Write a sequence for this structure.
């Protein structure tokens, strides 16, 4: 079973297209899948769209957070609700191409790693998002022992055993993505 965990923040206009593309990408891999859409306190109609999609598609699970906790909080909430043997984490804005999910799963299996991560050749992020990303990489290489490759995004596939380890990990204030590196999760990189 594959679970796709997708944090959503003010993306009402792309959710129908997202599901139209994610669903067949997962169906091509397995008949057993779920799509976990986590509304991270959106101010638009995202939750109403998610609710409608849940009613139309039994494989969609909607999670509504009480307020905006940020992308990492939404990812954690989605991982806590997911049941898959493999868990896909991706953005809802369609910069992560659902059609590339199979490349991540194949890399995970071929390389026998616990996680496969997309590495972007180019991406159309805002100046602010690019700046924050560069700051994170600079900080992590300068002040921690955590090795992080440049241009790795949120888009990844993780084995259930790693998510189970995250659930047992006593640290509750760190982000799930940073904990994946901290606990030493082995990974393969998939250039996209």
């Amino acid at each position: 079973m594959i679970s796709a965990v997708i944090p959503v923040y003010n993306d009402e206009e792309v959710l129908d297209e997202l599901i139209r593309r994610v669903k067949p990408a997962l169906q091509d891999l397995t008949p057993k899948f779920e799509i976990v859409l986590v509304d991270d306190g959106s101010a638009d109609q995202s939750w109403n769209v998610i609710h409608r999609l849940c009613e139309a598609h039994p494989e969609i699970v909607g999670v509504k957070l009480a307020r905006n906790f940020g992308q990492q909080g939404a990812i954690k909430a989605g991982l806590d609700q997911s049941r898959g043997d493999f868990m896909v984490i991706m953005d809802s804005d369609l910069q992560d191409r659902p059609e590339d999910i199979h490349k991540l799963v194949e890399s995970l299996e071929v390389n026998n790693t616990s996680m496969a991560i997309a590495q972007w050749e180019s991406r159309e992020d805002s100046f602010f998002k690019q700046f924050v990303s560069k700051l994170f990489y600079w900080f992590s290489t300068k002040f921690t022992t955590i090795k992080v490759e440049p241009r790795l995004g949120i888009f990844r596939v993780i084995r259930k055993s790693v998510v189970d380890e995250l659930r047992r990990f006593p640290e509750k204030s760190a982000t799930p993505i940073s904990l994946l590196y901290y606990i030493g999760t082995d990974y393969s990189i998939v250039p996209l």
Observations:
- The two ends are 24 Å apart (CA to CA).
- The mean pLDDT is 87.
- The longest strand covers residues 152-159.
- The helical segments are 15-27, 46-56, 71-81, 101-110, 127-143, 160-168, 176-182.
